[in-house]
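User: Structure please.
Assistant: Input sequence and predicted structure:
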Amino acid sequence: MKKYFLLLTLFFFAIVSVKAQLTNTKWKATIQADETLDLEFQFGKDTLNVINLGEASVIEVYTYTTANSVITLHKVYGQSECDTATTGQYKYAIKEHAISFMIMEDACEQRAAILNNSQWTKVE
């Protein structure tokens, strides 16, 4: 019984640790869409705000979950044509002061075009 409790405790802390990597962090990148955009990702506890730095405005809001270095995004509202029912899943890796995303599954082409193979720099 103690062995199962220990394993459960370790699993819980592993999940909390993964989520803590993103919680209350900011990441920026310059993205080439229809025009060049300077964007910032602002991760909260379970929300992600996408900020257009040039206009100082929120352009997208997502809820997110993480597990095993995979982030799942659910759009709440925003400017993209992505449906709020369409989720996106991306493998992410944090190395030093950068985060990168690789698509696993996303039916929203606009989001996938911005995130897939993108690298963002941590804002200190």
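The chain has one domain: 2-122.
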